[in-house]
Amino acid sequence: MPPAHPRQKKHSRKSRPDTVDKLLEAYPDVFADIINVLLYNGNTIVNPQFLTDGPSAAIYKAADGFLRQKNRDLAMYDTSGSPLCILYGLENQTKPSPIMPARVMGYDAASYDHNIRLIKSRNLAEGRPADYAMEIHSDQKLNPVITLTLYFGLTPWNGPRCLHDLLFLSEDIKKFLPDYPINLAEVAFLTPDTIEKFTSDFQIVAWWFRARRLKNTDELRTHQKEWIHVEELLEFFYVFAGDDRYRELKSGFAERIRKGESITMCTLVDSLIEEGMEKGISQGIAQTRYRDLAALIRSGMPHEQAARLLEFSQEELEGFHQWTALQ
């Protein structure tokens, strides 16, 4: 069984891919959904109510005898099959890593070592430590560790997919070297049939990445699944798209939810278009006023007098200076 500890809320709101994706994935419904679809072909093997936070950092003893630490992106225990307890780890990648199999192998090995140390500590507390050379008793087993790598790139993964891909390896020694394949999911390349198997907000994420890869946002209008974790989804899209409009939609979407409306992909697409049009209109009006001010100044009117005549605010004047610098 995993160590007992209360679930803690995630407070980080850093706008980086390596943190924003974890905000969404840390919800048990999303985490379980990812595992069930991408590892178990959509079968409900992992139940969100039996998930507990796992250690994202594992301490292990390195070959030099010193303690080292491996940090996972996210880890959760599935406690539904007691005494069997599985540790699932998620690793998020925005770019293919040329050493990913070795990294995953290191995370998994550190997790197993962490499990061994917990068993040894429990044995010692119970007054029945195992022999020094054995470390744990022969009837004691470790919890399985399964790591899934989520790749959010828009081009195919071109890195190694197993340990053998990473090694200088001749055929005569290959049979003596155990391979270590990674469980890799290329989110933007998931098929529609696979995406439809998701029941959580990760389905929305998968459709969004597919649409970005195909440059086909019109397809998003056809997906009417209601959003659950609205703020986290908008932050997710903001970070990966680099588009401020996603953040600007947060307050408006929150108000619509308070009024009992549902947020869907169609809502998002329409709101982005509307936001873009409003910005375009606003920018057009501003540029017209900038040109009027510039014309008055060129005619010989003093700068301050022209600004007072057109009733320019201080903010508009700053915008005018930025605009003239770009002309």
Can you walk through the features of this model?
By secondary structure, the chain is of the alpha/beta class. The protein contains 13 helices and 7 strands. The strands form 2 sheets. A 5-stranded mixed beta sheet has the order 1-4-5-6-7, sandwiched between helices. It has a two-stranded antiparallel sheet with strand order 2-3. The radius of gyration is 27 Å and the shape is elongated. Mean pLDDT is 85; it is low at 3-14. One of its GO terms (molecular function) is double-stranded DNA endonuclease activity.
Which features does this protein show?
327 residues, alpha/beta, two-stranded antiparallel ribbon
Write the layout of secondary structure elements.
Layout: H1 17-25, H2 28-38, E1 51-53, E2 57-61, E3 67-71, E4 74-78, E5 86-93, H3 100-125, E6 145-151, H4 163-166, H5 171-174, E7 183-186, H6 192-197, H7 202-214, H8 230-241, H9 245-248, H10 250-258, H11 265-298, H12 303-309, H13 314-326
Helix pairs in contact: 1-8, 11-13
GO molecular function: double-stranded DNA endonuclease activity
Domain Transposase (putative) YhgA-like: 90-205
Pfam families: Transposase_31
